[in-house]
Write a structure and sequence with these properties.
The complex is a heterodimer of chains A (282) and B (283).
Chain A (H helix, E strand, L loop, with lengths): L20 H32 L19 H4 L5 H34 L5 H13 L2 H15 L5 H25 L3 H9 L4 H30 L2 H6 L6 H8 L6 H28 L1
Helix pairs in contact in A: 1-11, 3-6, 3-8, 3-10, 4-6, 6-8, 7-8
Chain B lengths: L4 H28 L1 E4 L3 E4 L4 H9 L1 H32 L4 H9 L6 H12 L6 H6 L13 H25 L3 H9 L4 H30 L2 H6 L7 H10 L4 H26 L1 H9 L1
Antiparallel strand pairs in B: 1-2
Helix pairs in contact in B: 1-12, 2-12, 3-7, 3-9, 7-9, 8-9, 9-12, 9-13, 11-12
Classes of the chains: A mainly alpha (282), B mainly alpha (283).
Chain lengths: 282, 283
């Protein structure tokens, strides 16, 4: 996409007393540019606060005013064993649900992108419902199901719920990739005697892999961060967000900021690598 | 085999969605008409009176949620549109970097970001503390536990879901069309109101859907940033399900909330086409 870049155009000298329309446009652009950064700063403000207060030398439970710099919290992560356990639960749930979601979501994406079949409309509708339903309603209805059937909520039910809400996102991401495929390459492979199975693993799968990877990353990020559905389906199992929720009543210890900072750093690193490699591919 | 292929591929995911998304809705309806308690168990009595009771008891919270959701959505549109516009038309080669910046906050848990706001806005915290000691604010001034704090939190947490769909719609507007309008002597403002704005409306609609619905059902912001006067319907549902274990009332409330939202969503999706909204949602 090429846009005419007005900022690079030579500015005609406007006669004194008359505002040049071009200069007005540049001022407008500059204001908008400032505005964009203002909003970005607002989006990042609580995150900066979270990171900074992981280094706060606070004495009391209330971590709201700056008391001086310390690294002690980074070394005292084991002070709350239940917090660490909650973090590990979050990771375990995210890994397991990402694997399941990626496999069945990729299959769905292949079907939706490649074939026209009866029931496609209703499949799309249900996927749309899974994206558009508020988490609260999904969580409440899942809990109603588990109560009625007599299933004890816990680790397994959380995984079920996480697969449910990330499935559609993976399927849509993969479908977009499948629709954009050049079918003639697969035909060529078949003409050269490759079986359906070989064609899929040697040709199709490598070509849709970027879509599968970004779908998996999305599913993982959604799962690690999820709170509402998790709270409804977790029973006695704690995850990182649930532990923080429980701690807000009594005061959130600085170790939470430290762990949040670590998760954020890993997430940013993955996102940056993903963006850079995606740019190199295209 | 070739004819069966799509069905076999769809089967695992389709079953998952059917068993855990569609079926639970039926169970929720069933639970709402039961009577009993946690200790003795619940019995199906088709007690529909619970709907009337729950609705009249929590009417305030329903209306409040809708009001908060509406206010936060309108503010989100106003904040997101100029930003999406700038990224789409002036972002140039840096577009993807800006979009990445918009999405990065999601790598910090939703709850943790809201708790961070609670730190920031605390009565003697970083923002209010210095202002109070400088005598610029009265001693009793507070932001937490107010309506503004809750709506601000909602806008903060869901803004990216408004920015992205509007950006996608604006990104699809061909600059040549805008040029053509200007060649035909349209003023800059006219080119915007007659061409860019109408073409970007589907993005705004998708953004409204992706923000209004979860904002209205949200209970995290009201619980962390609000006070007893800011209880939303989500807080009630969460409380009734997970604390009071009054499942019939909780199910009746969630079912009502869902029905109200479904009506809205389907009217919406019909006007837009589900594909569009899905595509926008997937970006």
């Amino acid at each position: 996409m090429s846009t005419i870049d007005v900022t690079k155009a030579p500015v005609a000298d406007a006669p004194a007393g008359r505002r040049s329309p071009r200069r007005g446009r540049r001022l407008g652009d500059r204001l908008l540019f400032g505005y964009v950064w203002l909003i970005l700063a607002w989006l990042f403000l609580p995150i900066v606060v979270m990171i900074v207060f992981g280094f706060n030398d606070t004495q009391s439970k209330s971590n709201v005013t700056w008391q001086g710099f310390t690294l002690q919290w980074w070394g005292r992560l084991d002070e709350y064993p239940q917090l660490l356990e909650a973090v590990f639960n979050s990771l375990k749930i995210a890994v397991l649900s990402t694997v399941i979601t990626t496999v069945i979501g990729t299959l769905m994406g292949l079907a939706l992108g490649r074939y026209r079949f009866r029931g496609q409309g209703s499949t799309n509708l249900v996927m749309f419902a899974a994206i558009a339903s508020p988490e609260l309603v999904m969580g409440a209805s899942l809990l109603s199901l588990f109560i009625s059937v007599g299933v004890q909520t816990g680790f397994a039910t959380v995984v079920v719920a996480h697969v449910l809400f990330s499935l559609s996102f993976v399927a849509i991401t993969v479908r977009a990739r499948v629709i954009g495929l050049d079918r003639s390459i697969e035909e060529a492979a078949r003409d050269l005697g490759a079986s359906t199975w070989t064609t899929f693993w040697r040709i199709t799968f490598p070509m849709i892999l970027p879509g599968v990877v970004s779908g998996a990353l999305l599913a993982f990020a959604l799962s690690i961060d999820d709170f509402v559905i998790t709270q409804f389906t977790s029973g006695a199992v704690q995850t990182f967000p649930l532990w923080i929720w429980g701690a807000t009543r009594i005061g959130v210890p600085p170790q939470v900021n430290v762990i949040g900072t670590l998760i954020f750093a890993v997430g940013v690193a993955i996102a940056v690598v993903n963006t850079v490699t995606a740019r190199r591919r295209t | 085999m070739k004819r069966l292929a799509p069905y076999l591929l769809i089967l695992p995911g389709g079953l998952w969605l059917a068993i855990f998304l569609v079926v639970p809705m039926v169970f929720m309806a069933s639970v709402s008409t039961q009577e009993g308690n946690v200790v003795d168990g619940f019995v199906q009595t088709f007690n529909f009176a619970v709907y009337g009771d729950a609705l009249s008891q929590y009417q305030t919270q329903f209306l409040r949620s809708a009001g908060y959701g509406l206010a936060a959505t309108v503010i989100s549109i106003a904040l997101a549109y100029p930003m999406a516009y700038w990224i789409a038309f002036k972002g140039g080669s840096r577009k993807s970097t800006y979009l990445l910046l918009v999405l990065l906050p999601f790598f910090v848990s939703f709850v943790l970001r809201t708790v961070s706001w609670k730190f920031l806005l605390a009565d003697d915290g970083m923002l209010l503390g210095p202002l109070k000691s400088a005598g610029l604010l009265p001693e009793g001034f507070h932001v937490l536990q107010t309506t503004s704090a809750v709506i601000g939190g909602l806008v903060y947490n869901y803004l990216p879901f408004m920015i992205l769909p509007i950006y996608v719609a604006l990104e699809r507007v061909d600059p040549k069309v805008v040029e053509a309008a200007q060649d035909l002597y349209a003023a800059k403002r006219e080119a915007f109101t007659k061409i860019v704005l109408p073409l970007s409306l589907p993005g705004v609609f998708a953004g409204v859907l992706m923000t209004f619905v979860p904002m209205t059902a949200d209970y995290v912001n009201a619980a962390i940033l609000g006070g007893p006067e800011n209880t939303m319907i989500g807080n009630i549902i969460q409380l009734e399900y997970l604390v009071n274990n009054d499942y019939p009332t909780a199910a009746a409330l969630s079912f009502t909330l869902m029905a109200a939202m479904l009506v809205g969503i389907f009217a919406y999706a019909k006007a837009l086409g589900t594909e569009n909204v899905l595509e926008a949602a997937a970006r």
